[in-house]
Amino acid sequence: MNSPLKNEPRHRISLTRSDIILLIESIHESKNPLAADNINMLSKLNVFLSKIDNKVIAASYMPAPPAPSLLESIGVVDTSANISIKADKKSKEQVWEDCYNKYLSNPTACNAMELECAQEHKYLNELMSQEEIATFEADQFTKYNQ
User: Fold this and answer.
1) Distance CA 90, CA 59 (A)
2) Rounded CA gap, 96 and 90, in Å?
3) What are 29-72's pLDDT values in tens digits?
4) Domain ranges across the chain
5) What does the alpha-carbon distance between residue 77 and residue 102 come to, in Å, rounded to a whole number?
6) Cβ–Cβ < 8 Å for 81, 102
7) N or C, which end of the chain is more exposed by having fewer CB within 10 Å?
8) Strand locations in the chain, DSSP E?
9) Chain-centre distance for alpha carbon 99
10) Per-residue pLDDT tens digits for 106-131
11) Residue 76 phi/psi, 5° resolution?
12) In angstroms, rounded to a whole number, what is the distance separating the alpha carbons of residues 42 and 6?
């Protein structure tokens, strides 16, 4: 690697702190870490790393979080319950029971998805009155036949 001339164009690249550390370690482990080009590159990388560590410079790029789906963005789907279901890899029956137990302990802490799961658990385990069963079945019929 030849040292850049003063009038040679320079380019910016996007590196994470881990990438910079890996480059520094690679140079240290190279056959000739004391070569002039390696020392030049190490001095630049170490200065850059020091600036990052001391918060002299901020990241110029942060990956954006994934965009919500259309249903999530208009509030039709509550992702908080879906995320916990996927993360725990529980059966839907276990999730319904967990939601039911949460409902019993503090119904106001439940979101709409948890309330629906709690109702499903009550229905399947015969924990509803006849009036609740009639209302639940009517709601389900309406929900799935629109």
Assistant:
1) 38
2) 10
3) 988 888 888 888 888 888 888 888 888 887 776 666 666 666 66
4) 17-53, 78-141
5) 20
6) no
7) C
8) none
9) 23
10) 988 888 888 888 888 898 898 989 99
11) -75, -35
12) 18
